[in-house]
Design goal:
The protein is mainly β and 522 residues long. 7% of the residues lie in helices and 59% in strands. Among the domains are: 1-97, Single Sheet (Histone H3 K4-specific methyltransferase SET7/9 N-terminal domain), CATH 2.20.110; 327-379 and 387-395, no CATH class; 406-511, no CATH class. The chain is rod-shaped and about 185 Å long.
Length: 522
């Protein structure tokens, strides 16, 4: 490329031998030409000083700037290079007043062909030009460090190109109107990648996102960061061996799918960004089926995968299962059996058959209830519960059956660990005691029993643990009982105390009476 400097051209013209064809000419508008002249017009080398203050120094042909020349413009721009028909044409350099610099090809006064523009802000463009705009293939280095290499149309990225962002991200693919559009691949700064369709700089349409943090590939129909429609989740690894589940996106963290792992089958929604490629993602809601006719369907606990899940991990829904001696078929609520049928079998210890209503148990049991896996029943006060007899579970901690502690036994209903309703109790000892009574929340209402063959009745106070005992032989006593297990022994103690007192008083009265001598009669 030919380059000219104003100083050098002026020096050349000064040193040129003066010829008859060279002369100085002043135009009517005030422009002044000094140089070679021929055919009544500038021809050859010369300097034109325009009345506007602009200066051209270089070659002329028939009054037009043509060939090599340099020009200083009124606005501060400076050009040095080739001219044709009075405009820039060929190779040249333009230094703009704002410090931008272009070096390259020109045509008809505009950048055209190959050239490089270096901007004052440090950015640049090097490549093909057309009519003053980027056109064709070129490289643009931006002031912020971004670098684009690829196709341009009318000054904007269009067609195939690659952008390396200063952030570390890069995009390779198709562009339209200056933004990624069509098919392209994006490597994000954090290591994520997206390959698929773009529109106006955003993922739009079918594509695959690799999530580096979770090591999985997500395919679907994208709208920016949102994904929807039919798609798949691949849990890292090789395509041939990795776990891949197919389904439909409901949101970025909810995927509707159906898949099987280790003889279990799941159909429902999962969180695709959780879990791993061995045990699967964490379940959200849906049905799990086991090969041994176990089914659970509903909402699942957090952090539960298909391989490790069990019916006990269901929060709300329905389940049918047999495990650990328990068989249930019904509704699950808050992680517990709520409504349904239930059987329990613990070999040699306990059996239950009944149902669950609103979380409470109802049914028949056989065996020792202290070994039963039913929560909410207080039997801690008893050494033996039920034994070989049959009892009933009646909900809300209500348990009817036989209970024993030492020589004391109780048959009836316990509710939350206290007698409630009709019952029978006795002491198995020589001076046996027995009582048929009615209780309310652990407080005796009334009863009838036998103590040493003596029949008695008991009447409880409306409040507190005060009781009145009446015997058929006329004995009567009032006493307080500590708890329901002590009521008979405390009654016996009180009766014995009162009888001892009466016997002592009778003996004292008998001893205080003096004998009367008989009187003889005539």
């Amino acid at each position: 490329m030919k380059k000219f400097l104003f100083i050098s051209l002026a020096l050349v013209l000064t040193l040129m031998p003066y010829s008859l064809d060279a002369r100085k000419h002043k135009y009517p508008n005030g422009d002044v030409y000094d140089g070679e002249w021929k055919n009544k017009a500038p021809n050859g080398m010369g300097i034109m000083m325009y009345v506007s203050g602009e200066i051209y120094s270089g070659a002329w042909v028939n009054g037009l700037r043509e060939g090599s020349g340099a020009m200083s413009f009124q606005n501060g721009d400076q050009y040095s290079g080739d001219w044709k028909n009075d405009v820039f044409c060929g190779e040249g350099k333009m230094t703009y007043a704002n410090k931008d610099v272009y070096e390259g090809s020109w045509d008809a006064g505009k950048q055209h062909g190959k050239g490089k523009m270096t901007y004052a802000d440090g950015s640049s463009y090097e490549g093909a030009w057309e009519a003053g705009a980027f056109q064709g293939v070129g490289t643009r280095i931006y002031a912020n460090g971004d670098v684009y290499e690829g196709s341009w149309i009318a000054g904007v990225q269009s067609g195939s190109g690659n952008m390396k962002y200063a952030s570390g991200a890069s995009y390779t693919g198709n562009w339209e109107n200056g933004t990624p559009s069509g098919h392209g691949d994006m490597l994000y700064a954090g290591g994520n990648t997206y390959s698929g369709q773009w529109k106006q700089g955003q993922p739009s349409g079918p594509g695959e996102l690799y999530d580096k943090e979770h090591d999985r590939y997500l395919t679907g129909n994208w709208d920016g960061e949102a994904v929807g429609g039919a798609g798949s989740v691949r849990f890292g690894g090789d395509v041939a061996t990795a776990l891949i589940i197919q389904g439909e996106w409901l949101s970025a963290d909810k995927f509707q799918t159906s898949y099987s792992l280790q003889d279990k089958t799941f159909s429902g929604t999962v969180n695709p960004l959780t879990g791993d490629g061995v045990k699967g993602p964490f379940l959200e809601s849906g049905k799990v089926e086991w090969p041994d006719d176990m089914v659970a369907d509903g909402k699942w606990m957090p952090d539960v995968n298909l391989v490790d899940c069990n019916c006990s991990d269901l929060v709300d829904g329905r389940a049918r299962y047999k495990m650990n001696g328990k068989a249930f078929d019904g509704e699950i609520k808050d992680g517990k059996e709520c409504n349904g049928t239930l059987t329990i079998s613990i070999q040699g210890k306990f059996n239950f058959s009944g149902e669950v209503k609103d979380g409470q148990y109802y049914g028949i049991y056989v065996g020792d209830f202290k070994g039963a896996p039913l929560p909410g029943f207080d039997v801690s006060a008893w050494d033996e519960v039920q034994g070989a007899d049959i009892g009933r579970v009646e909900g809300e901690g209500a348990l009817s059956g036989v209970y024993k502690k030492g020589v004391f036994s109780f048959r009836g209903l316990l509710k939350n660990g206290l007698p409630d309703g009709d019952s029978y109790m006795e002491f198995a000892r020589p001076d046996s005691l027995s009582l048929n009574g009615t209780w309310k929340e652990g407080r005796l209402v009334e009863g009838k029993g036998i103590m040493n063959a003596s029949v008695f009745t008991l009447k409880g106070a409306e409040e507190g643990n005060s009781v009145q005992a009446d015997f058929e032989n006329g004995d009567r006593c009032n006493f307080l009982y500590t708890d329901y297990q002590s009521i008979l022994s405390e009654m016996m103690t009180k009766v014995q105390e009162q009888r001892a007192i009466r016997e002592k008083l009778a003996a004292e009265m008998a001893a205080s009476q003096e004998p009367v001598e008989p009187v003889a009669t005539e």
